[in-house]
């Protein structure tokens, strides 16, 4: 509903989401096992978080592990979970020192106790930080996030005796894992693939998309700057027309 939409200027860049793709191809091109591509991908994560802070981005969401990634070979899944754990244990202190606030979005159900403990630790230790807001999408699927949000919302409304027919778009926005955060302004995907792959379907409704040819492990500050430059050249219309073209039409 237009009335519910936030009025954002085209220049404002508050929330960037990244679909980190191409670790496997990066490794294959070097005759390396896929797991080394993922490991190199973690180095790119570190560089990107640092760069996002330096460039004044307020919210950064990284798609680290989708609900569909469980279908990969067991060893690869183990490697990816291991890298996630290692990232939190090794990098949390530095992230906190740099003022980064960490949130992990996605379904927590079914995650092992050690991962849940690390996620809780990362979120609680960084909760008071006021720098970059880093969302790590882990065991995440956009449709599943909307499903969980609606279930939570309906449950709360029924408990309060409210009519579910009155649910608004803002109610759903607020019930998502990203409740309280701005919608995505810019979605970047590396590796040349041009798909959304179930990433933040609701939050990306009016995002600009930039698809880059580089594989994720090669991503760095200069690629991020390039994507931002491309974003700055776009005119965001949210379904309307640019002001100069707007005409009064008697209906
Ligand atoms: C896509 O490349 C990448 C992933 C499925 C995982 C991304 C994970 C990381 C960068 C490491 C862990 C992240 C954090 C935040 C610690 P792909 O394997 O699909 O590559 P391909 O399409 O070339 O095969």
Count of alpha and pi helical runs: 7
What is the terminal separation in angstroms? 19 Å
Instruction: Please tally the β strands and state the result.
Output: 6
Question: In terms of structural class, how would the helical and strand content be classed?
Answer: alpha/beta
Tell me what the structure shows:
It is globular, with a radius of gyration of 19 Å. It has a single domain, classed as Undecaprenyl pyrophosphate synthetase, CATH 3.40.1180. Strands 3-4-2-1-5-6 form a six-stranded parallel beta sheet, with helices on both faces. Helices cover 41% and strands 14% of the residues. Helix 2 runs parallel beside helix 3, helix 3 runs parallel beside helix 4 and helix 5 crosses helix 6. It has seven helices and six strands; from the N terminus they run βααβαβαβααββα. The chain is an alpha/beta fold and 251 residues long. The structure holds farnesyl diphosphate. The site of farnesyl diphosphate (FPP) has 20 residues, from helix 1, helix 2, strand 2 and helix 3. The site of farnesyl diphosphate has 20 residues, from helix 1, helix 2, strand 2 and helix 3.
Defining key terms:
alpha/beta; Undecaprenyl pyrophosphate synthetase; 6 strands; globular; binds farnesyl diphosphate
Outline the fold blueprint:
Layout: E1 15-19, H1 23-29, H2 34-54, E2 59-66, H3 74-97, E3 101-105, H4 113-126, E4 133-140, H5 142-159, H6 169-175, E5 186-189, E6 208-211, H7 221-232
The structure holds farnesyl diphosphate (FPP).
